[in-house]
Amino acid sequence: MTVITEVEALVLDGQVEYGTRLDDGEMAGPRYSSLIKVSTDAGVTGYADVDSHPWIVQALVNARTQIPEFCAGLRDAVVGQSVWNRSALWERMYRHSWYHGRRGPALHAMSGIDLAVWDIAGRLAGRPVHDLLGGARRDRVLAYASTLFRETPEEMRKATRSYLDRGFRAIKFGWGAWGINPARDRELLAAVRDEAGPDVHLMVDGHLPGDLTAVRRVLDGLAEFGLQWVEEPLPADRPGDLAALGRATNVRVATGEQLGGVGEFEELLAAEGVSVVQPDLSRCGGFTAIQTIAPLALARGALVVPHAWTSQLLTAASLHVNAWLPGPVFQEYNVSSAPLASTLATGLQLVDGYALVPTGPGLGVTVDENVVEAHRIA
């Protein structure tokens, strides 16, 4: 029996401020990153990055016991436990955070530990994570370049051309200049569609101003651009309105990246309307939770597209889920050249617009420990 000997929540500094325009025209994401490191008595280590507040995640992992097994740090819940009893381990973490967690950052911290433990189990078994989930249905997934809106139609054309030249057949533009002026939004999208042509998949991400009726009118006006989906045109904490919006328009509505735990996805899917469900593995509860969340969404007729934007480590985890999922799939692919997004993990391959599913044991990618040590500040 392989047991966990240590859990660390590291804080990494990418040394580039959020929103900084990089040399290649991309924008930097959050400067600081949360990285979970799980060690075992077998000498095998697992890693996972967590898309949350790094210092809060660290506090949740390291917290001292307040009430044994009900209000305690996640490190106390995990150290000494077997990596093979992953469902029991998840339940143990959940129970240890009953009084201060159950949703939000506690779920995020649990997610990171869960992902790292699955990575370890795969490495020990000599099998990729998708085998542990139930097997792969595909060896590659159509990737979409995930990036931000530029300020002008000319800049949008240039960005679109750069992704097409890299082989992408799908592109998602989000936030940035989006959602401020409906007329300008249409100009920006028109430039993208004209440059990309009719066969490239396009997606849009970002809140839209106004009430439910106003947002519906905007979406109806975007139908001519042939969008795969519009992501979170309303805030994620309005699941009823998002579902109502989806029922009222012909444009697919997507959401889910901010949700944690099965309960929040049950709430989201209580009413029909959301067509694309986007669990982020580093927030929703990890691989253990996705085994319940994905079938729940699929049974409601929704497309499941994991959200993955922090680094190629999270991209790799999402690829294993996409390999296992039935039906059509898309892989979010962060194109940012920010240091931690692009260098934390190595081993992913992009071929003709498809991300290849890693076949090595565990997550099938390698965390560069030199990069970790160079950027670690806590």
From TrEMBL:
Keyword vocabulary terms for this entry: Lyase
Top-level taxonomic group: Bacteria
The keyword Lyase is assigned to this record: yes
Matches recorded under Pfam families: MR_MLE_C, MR_MLE_N
Entries under SUPFAM superfamilies matching the protein: Enolase C-terminal domain-like (SSF51604), Enolase N-terminal domain-like (SSF54826)
Residue ranges of domain Mandelate racemase/muconate lactonizing enzyme C-terminal in the record: 153-252
Signal sequence extent: none
Name of the protein this chain belongs to: Mandelate racemase/muconate lactonizing enzyme family protein
